[in-house]
Predict the structure.
Amino acid sequence: MPILSARGALSVRGLGHLTKRRRGALSVNGIVVFNYGNATGAMRSNIRDSHHLVNDTIASARNLINNCAYQSAVSNSVMGIMALGYNGGNTKLREAYYFSTNTTAVAASASDNCYSGSGCGNATRGIMALGYNGGYSTIRNKYIYETHTSTVSTTGAASMASCNGSAAGNATRGIFTIGTSASGNVAVTNKYMYETDTSSVSTPLTRSSALGAAASNATTAIFTHGSNVATVNLYLFQTDAVQVTNNLTLAFNQGSGGGGDTLALFNLGINASGARNRYNYTTKIVSSAKSATVANWLGSAFSTGVTGVTA
């Protein structure tokens, strides 16, 4: 039985050999696409929606190819890559989603069956922590969007075997929370440098974190702590400083998040009846956003607004 998790990138070339599924095109400016995971009345669902950050409107989006939960994801401005996680069993399968055409395709598989991972990336690659692959794992995969190839990042492994983490980054680095390790939930973070594919221990969060989510812009990542608490941390990329910021409006558990240059958007998870919050990076104000039609949890999210966002 799965342990638990939640969390977006690609270019349109190189998927000609893959089967795409089409429905009406979507506007791609400043949206977060939520992959529901479990949903009320539909465990391991294939539901997806598109949430406009500024207008705070929700539109339907092309369904996932597979019903699944315990997902993780990476994205750039063109597309998202989602690790299915658990679809009746641990799986290597991933899906690609294209923002402008609202289409899906099979993507390059993970190096092992896994679930409850996390991921972040920049315009050219996504770094995806496998999470739980029959045991807590340190393995991360590097997904190159243009060629749609996935390889083990041999020099970029996590500092601690774990699952249930979250991740967000900018153009040069990604910050991963470790999440749940063999010793329990921890506050440990790792900094992954994309150019060198190296990972090091970085500034810890202010409290242990698992089943949270993250989003980022060029300067700041925001991490929800998960585990049924409303507390939030900011991580400043330039100084590696961690700060406490304003709480969410409800406790967060098993949700997902993404964002753009000025706003982050979080689906609050299992106990929130579909509720979502917006976070303004400039004012640090948290406000209620338009809710999903049903509660959903253990899913993931893709963002178009900035290079290097969520998971």
Summary: Residues 4-27, 306-311 have pLDDT under 50 and may be disordered. Residues 31-303 form a domain with the Neuraminidase fold (CATH 2.120.10.80).
